[in-house]
Amino acid sequence: MWRPPQRIKWKASPGPWPSAQQAAGSPLFQPLHYQALSLATRTWVPAMVPWRATDEGFVTAANIEWYARFASGRPGAIVLEATGIRDLPSGPLLRIGDDRFVPGLAQIAQAVREASDGETRLYIQLIDFLSIRRRPEPQRFLERFLRIGPHHRDALQLAASVDEQTVRERLLALNEQQLALVLTARELEAMRYGERERVTDTSKAAIADLPQTLPTLFANAARRARDAGFDGVELHYAHAYTMASFLSALNTRTDGYGGTPEERVRLPLEVYRAVRQAVGADYVVGCRYLAEECIEGGNTLSDTPYFGVEFARAGMDFVSLSRGGKFDDAKQPKPGHAAYPYTGPSGYECMPQYVSDEFGPFGRNRNAARTIRSAIRAAGLDTPVVTAGGVFDFQAAQAMLADGSADIVGLARQSLADPDWFLKVRTGNGAQVRVCEYTNYCEALDQHHEVVTCQLWDRLDLGEPGIAKTPDGKRRLTPPRWLADGSRSLPD
């Protein structure tokens, strides 16, 4: 993963933890009600992909145990991992592109209700993504995958009648500098990084038709989520994926769905309206989008407040803010591996590490979120804003609510380090919190599509009877249980 050149080492040092009485009076642990959204507390576990599904996208016992474990800590809400809306192979990522996935997802919803005694709301993040291929060996790319066209013959000064095999042989004889003069920028990218579709590839019928196909795909997925017992859906409009790409300033489509901010937000709004029509006004529908893309030519705070206002005005029940995490500046993968959108500078902004710059890894999204929330409020709208990013302590969470950076505070890596953060803080046991060290051990596992755990707990109590472990038997799949004074009961 990319790191800032300053290489300043930061340590997560929580301030004073509250007593149970102080926590009870804190805004963080007060309810929030807005339209269909109703939370017991203003705490939120953002979507994280733990790679526990089957290769066919079905729920496993490990998925159910994972979410039940988070729910036992009683956050206000949990967002289920990014779940694919198409019925297409996508590896061990959960899917919701067909009714056959509903029974398994319903088991997760039921497990969360039982583990939290009905307190924690469960939303599911719905995602669409375009094709990305593994980086090929250059020789294999030139021999097999490159589509030979007239521009190659022209650059090589070959007659139009020269056969394809001869063109490939001539290309194979070139060094990389020479190839850069013959191949197009996209062909070079495909050779160096792996071929990747973009929403601007409108010469492909499936890409051109996305504005016609996606609203129905998202709407059908949302209907299945409601059937499965989820409390709502979060539309994934963030990071490196399809809907974020429509919002991006790099979206230059000329069909009315790219170019100006009004055209770039058009499809995300049409998707939302289709989903709302499918599930009704009494069902929670929100989205997650980027406060800043953090890439050259991408969306900045001159673009994104407008989107927040439009989402709020359309009637969304919440907007959740992230940042960065794009393919555009990702590190070159090894041959045989696909590019991973969290390896470049924008990826760092999404998941900053303890080795950082003068701003540090904590709360990097906070100022941008405050700007977007202020724009929403200035438009006369009260849509709750969920803000996450390097939050690990009670004091910072309190401050975010106080200064207008958030209405709901999201804790992702900190909740992974200790799913009981919420329960421990509420009961005056904050000093027992297992504080995230922001080493991004979890991110490294995610990058390789290995089951995600935390280094702070995955080797604790490995001899405990009946615990589930990774296939190699070296890591536990869920954190050890925590009991406060032998009891998990909450104060009245």
Task: Write a structural description.
Strand 4, helix 2 and strand 5 (77-84) form a beta-alpha-beta unit. By secondary structure, the protein is α/β, with parallel strands linked by helices. Helix content is 35%, strand content 11%. The chain is globular, with a radius of gyration of 23 Å. Residues 486-492 have low confidence and may be disordered.
List the helices and strands and how they pair.
Elements: E1 8-9, H1 20-24, E2 32-34, E3 37-39, E4 43-45, H2 61-71, E5 77-84, H3 102-115, E6 121-127, H4 138-145, H5 150-155, H6 164-172, H7 176-182, H8 185-192, H9 205-208, H10 210-227, E7 232-237, H11 242-247, H12 261-264, H13 266-279, E8 284-292, H14 304-314, E9 319-323, H15 345-350, E10 355-356, H16 366-378, E11 385-387, H17 394-402, E12 408-410, H18 413-417, H19 421-426, H20 441-447
Parallel strand pairs: 4-5, 4-12, 5-6, 6-7, 7-8, 8-9, 9-11, 11-12
Antiparallel strand pairs: 1-10, 2-3
